[in-house]
Known about the structure:
By secondary structure, this protein is mainly β. It contains 1 helix and 20 strands.
Amino acid sequence: MTKLNAGGTGLIYSTYIGGSGEDRGYGIAIDGSGNAYVTGETWSTDYDVTAGAYQTTNGGYSDVFVTKLCLGLAINIDLTSGLGSDSQTVCINTPITNIIYSTTGATGAIFSGLPSGVSGSFANDTVTISGTTTATGTFYYTVTLTGGCETATATGVIAINNCTGIDELSTHASWHIYPNPTMGRFTLRTEQGGVFELMDLCGKVIQTYKLQNATEQIQVDLPGGMYLIRERERGVTQKLIVQ
């Protein structure tokens, strides 16, 4: 089997299919990924077959065959959104930080395990997971690429907590965070300094800051998601969203 370029002047590939007996090809087709499908008849007892094929041995005299030649690109998927965005924690009814993957060799993607309100899409070799969460829990998702000869998957986790009461507390704060959402660097402005704690949504303290000045810039290196900042003395808490 041989493929030439559109002008018929150059060889793209050439290969042999069949066994040691008589084999006849009757039809050929090409799919959108460049894979070739050949049908025909074989008398060979050693015709190449793959594991799990409908029939793996010659049934006597001649048999019909269908052979697929996978000639597409290698299939790959790589995370291109922020480090840790494929493992994030958010509050219910809050948009997640978009999770983005770049792909090669695929024509589509299948998504499983995403929380309610969050969905995935595939376009222009890019997988995007986005949406606003509507249910609490920990969700382990899988993205499976389609269209290639092999398979490639990516996995991640989205944890969704019930954060009722945070907004009410933040309205009484005498200190402010900006910009919020932040890419990792933000300003904390207070009336007279104090001790502030950066926490995850489960209340675990990640970092403690002792502010001597009324205004101080803070740099964090955290996966995208929602966090809490609490003023230790009064217990007032505000949300911090890291993108």
